Amino acid sequence: MIQKTLVLLKPDAVERALVGRIIERFENAGLKIIGIKMVWVDKEFSKKHYAAHVSKAFYNPLETFIVSGPVIAFVLEGIEAVELVRKIVGPTEPKSAAPGTIRGDFAHHSYKYADSKGIAIKNLIHASGTVEEAEQEVRLWFTSEEMHSYETVHEKHTK
Ligand code: CDP
Ligand code: MG
After folding, report:
1. In a 10 Å sphere around its CB, with 0-12 CB exposed, 13-18 middle and 19+ buried, how is residue 62 labelled?
2. Is 146 helix (H, G, I), strand (E, B) or coil?
3. Which of 9, 24, 28, 59 is a Cys-bridge partner for 13, taking CB atoms 3.0 to 4.6 Å apart?
4. What domains sit in the chain, N to C, each tagged with a CATH number?
């Protein structure tokens, strides 16, 4: 039941200097950062990360967006972390994301507006969608040497 999940703070979050405020939300919930780095991805790596989306209409704008600046990549670990992190992040479209979620609190972009401009939805953050996706994405982004094992106070209180 202890899962690892991949989170990316996309170029809009980094450029808007929201890194600290976003990471704080995961730490508040007791999730453990086990690996973290800044990466400026290229188009080839984007196609690996978004392999499931490469043939979709929104892929080209998405690729332009994700390679437009550096991202902060990290792996969170915790109890049923994949679903929990998605809950904290909120749904894909910021306009529909509830207040209290990261996408709902820090962005307001809509599908309609993004499509009318031929750009990707600027939604600040990526989080693995399923346990299977999380396993693949953690493997793609982090080597085992880049991830660390240690005990947090939260673990002491959930034993
Ligand atoms: O990121 P999430 O898992 O919530 O959504 P996704 O369906 O896996 O799509 C990946 C990313 O593509 C989204 O986070 C958006 O940035 C972008 N996207 C878009 O710009 N327009 C769409 N119609 C769908 C996705
Ligand atoms: Mg997804």
Report:
1. buried
2. helix
3. 9
4. 2-156 (3.30.70.141)
Number of C-beta neighbours around residue 134 at 10 A: 22
Protein residue closest via CA to atom 1 of ligand 1? 126
Mean pLDDT in each 10-residue stretch from start to end of the chain (159 residues)? 98 98 98 98 98 97 98 98 98 98 98 96 98 98 98 88
Ligand 1, atom nearest to 50 Cα: 10
Q: What is the DSSP string of 91-124?
A: -S-GGGSPBTBHHHHH----HHHHHHHT-----S
Active site residue 126: yes
What would the two tokens of residue 32 be? Answer: 């453990």
What predicted TM-score, i.e. pTM, was given to this entire model? 0.97
Q: What is the model's pLDDT at position 159?
A: 80
Dig out the tokens for 22 from the structure: 């976003």
Q: Which of 53, 108, 109, 126 is catalytic?
A: 126
Supply the pLDDT for residue 157: 87
